[in-house]
């Protein structure tokens, strides 16, 4: 029940903060609009978003333990992370489209159902030492990525316009907060219990959130039931899956190997065909004209680079902390002790989320996002220059937590403000995909830099590799500042 304790405190804290700031309605304010935007609805949306994000990263710190239990290589065990990301990247835009057409509550419930079913299968696989079963369970879990666009769509449909910004900020923050908590929780769990408990915790949260969907308002049926763009969905699946496969397996298969070259070629052809198909289809899965618009394109670029920097950091920090001190750096920490070292990232993300909600309503989403990106770049630069003592990593992690709490909480408002209401699901879905792709890119870029700076046959990576990787991550995150510089200070929803 590791995640229930964390999410219980998180949701209660978020609810109190949102209530004080006027985001959620008291019951008497919701008269004539049954449960719309009320405390139960907001709490369910926060819980659902948090649970999906936490379950995505829950295996990250436990991959070496899972590799030993399943008797597979560490690269093979990384598929337990990649499978979730692949399925999530594919399911998210489809769920956004379905939610816009058929109702976001139905899509939200379906996503949570996939999270529950996948968690149960993964737990059975982990308990029985059945790697294929655990891998399949992780892929089914990943289908819950559609929870994010559904949650944004429900918020926009039910929360009053003057309070929508804070709720969207809270939902956006859950992506980063949940991911950080998942990574932190994994170490202690596998230290005291079997790895199956990682997935049982996800199951408990999924069932709790699924039960809460009954408290969400059900919008009336819409008359414009457009067909689903099946060719576009298949091409998008091939393009995204190929990209993530290339990123995740490039170092293992060899960047110039036939397998990688073939995968990259399929990715490129699928991406080009997807663009051609979507621009010629009357009812496309993704309206590329909207995504390439003057307001949404900069937000997408900024989301990608910030995600790259975040996942680079959270990949590097545990590896650095667990490096034996005999190497001249590192602390030789266990997985559980490493979790305590990076816990400030999650803790300060939680603290930053309600702060971001308030700041967004006063200074605007763009300035809040830029503040987060600036702090993130500074903290990564600090890690590149000073990582000789545990307190330095913990302090930089705290600043990083604030940085990404602000950035992820505000980017949702930037996305929502860049499109009209009918395209909220698709736009937020694609933004979630960019976070997933950015995470995969960040992890692989960081690993490649460290490996490239390490002499052949060395027992441990070179410290210079970590310095270079942190520095590159700092520069990448800094690029988010000019990316959104021309956006309006306040992100007002478009009416087109």
Describe the structure.
The chain has 496 residues and is mainly alpha-helical. The protein folds into 2 domains: 2-218 and 285-483, Growth Hormone, Chain: A, CATH 1.20.1250; 229-284. It is built from 20 helices and no strands. Keywords: Antibiotic resistance, Cell membrane, Membrane, Transmembrane, Transmembrane helix, Transport. This is MFS transporter.
Descriptive labels:
496 residues; mainly alpha; Growth Hormone, Chain: A; 20 helices; globular
**Total count of domains:** 2
Average residue pLDDT: 80
Q: Would you identify the CATH architecture of the largest domain? A: Up-down Bundle
Query: What would you call the structural class?
Result: mainly alpha
User: Which CATH C-level class of the largest domain is it?
Assistant: Mainly Alpha
Q: What's the end-to-end separation, in Å?
A: 46 Å
Shape: globular
Tally the beta strands: 0
N-to-C series of helices and strands: HHHHHHHHHHHHHHHHHHHH
User: Roughly how many Å is the radius of gyration?
Assistant: 21 Å
Number of helices: 20
Strand count, sense and barrel status of the largest sheet are: none
> Which stretches are poorly predicted, pLDDT < 50 over at least 5 residues?
1-37, 492-496
CATH superfamily of the largest domain: MFS general substrate transporter like domains
Helical content stands at over 70%
CATH fold category name of the largest domain: Growth Hormone, Chain: A
